């Protein structure tokens, strides 16, 4: 375990019945680093985020955050410690306004974080602050979900497919925001299908298939890897 690592996964297994959604996943992530996590549908990316965030308990293996073992932590405890995530399909409180959604996140926050208006500005939703969250389109809901996670002051941010559905200029803006967060010292695990987006942000990517890591390195090297091509890029 590197002394720099903020997050360490050691041979994590997560089963649903007899099915191993995660089959011995190990990874390390440092403060300010962006690690891309890619792989075909169903390979275990979201499950990995769910385990780190404390939504699921692993069946085997260990999880460390800032040097402490957190294998059996709860969702609330992990948020209080500084772990938060965005959802592949965000579920804001639809009948509340954008700002009210952040006020609720703030209510649960135990860590210092920027003022809510600054977070709204950061994700580009200031002009929609008084709109009902349910009236936002899906990419705006994703940005609201990012602001909600940031309202708990995370130092580990798990991002589950933020880029889906964005046009090229929106993609550039979101990439800048992710880069900014990493530069501010937040460790970021970035799950994404848009490989160009990942490539613009990090050269360190893990490719998963069937609950296992099959490759770690940069995407250009991944593209030359026969197994990665067979199960993911080739398809
Ligand atoms: N709560 C659950 N109960 C049963 N099976 C589950 C559960 N959550 C995930 N799975 C299964 O675990 C496997 C991994 O799912 P996961 O959502 O982690 O994949 P993913 O890599 O995020 O896929 P995608 O790219 O489609 O989002 C899939 O076969 C999925 O059906
Ligand atoms: Mg997923």
Run of helices and strands:
EEEHEEHEHHHEHEHEEHH
Number of helices: 9
Q: What is the typical, i.e. mean, pLDDT?
A: 95
**Any low-confidence stretches, pLDDT <50, length ≥5?**
none
Secondary structure category? alpha/beta
CATH fold field value of the largest domain: Rossmann fold
CATH superfamily of the largest domain: P-loop containing nucleotide triphosphate hydrolases
**What's the number of structural domains?**
2
Task: Give the amount of beta strand, in percent.
Answer: 25-35%
Task: Write up what this structure looks like.
It is a single chain. The protein has 9 helices and 10 strands. Helix 3 runs parallel beside helix 5 (138-150) and helix 4 (116-123) runs antiparallel to helix 5 (138-150). The strands form 2 sheets. It has a 6-stranded mixed beta sheet with strand order 6-7-8-3-9-10, sandwiched between helices. Strands 2-1-4-5 form a 4-stranded antiparallel beta sheet, with helices on one face. It is of the alpha/beta class. The relative contact order is 0.18. It has 2 domains: 5-82 and 155-233, P-loop containing nucleotide triphosphate hydrolases (Rossmann fold, 3-Layer(aba) Sandwich); 91-153, no CATH class. The protein binds adenosine-5'-triphosphate and magnesium ion. Magnesium ion (MG) is lined by residues 45-46, 88.
């Amino acid at each position: 375990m590197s002394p720099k690592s903020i997050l360490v996964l050691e041979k994590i297994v997560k089963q649903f019945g007899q099915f191993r959604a995660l089959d011995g996943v190990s990874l390390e992530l440092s403060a300010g680093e962006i690690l891309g996590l890619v792989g075909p549908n169903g390979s275990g990316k979201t499950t990995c985020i769910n385990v780190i965030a404390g939504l699921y308990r692993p069946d085997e293996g260990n999880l460390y955050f800032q040097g402490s073992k957190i294998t059996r932590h709860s969702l609330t405890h992990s948020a209080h410690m500084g772990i938060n995530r965005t959802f592949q399909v965000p579920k804001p409180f639809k009948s509340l306004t954008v700002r009210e959604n952040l006020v609720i996140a703030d209510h649960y926050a135990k860590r210092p974080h920027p003022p809510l208006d600054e977070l709204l500005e950061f994700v580009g939703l200031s002009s929609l602050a008084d709109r009902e969250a349910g009236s936002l389109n899906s990419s705006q809901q994703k940005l609201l979900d990012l602001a909600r996670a940031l309202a708990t002051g995370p130092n580990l941010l798990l991002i589950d497919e933020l880029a889906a559905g964005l046009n090229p200029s929106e993609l550039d803006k979101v990439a800048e925001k992710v880069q900014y967060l990493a530069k501010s010292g937040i460790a970021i695990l970035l799950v994404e299908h848009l490989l160009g987006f990942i490539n613009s942000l990090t050269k360190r990517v893990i490719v998963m298939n069937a609950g296992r890591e099959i490759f770690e390195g940069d995407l250009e090297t991944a593209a030359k890897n026969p197994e990665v091509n067979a199960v993911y890029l080739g398809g």
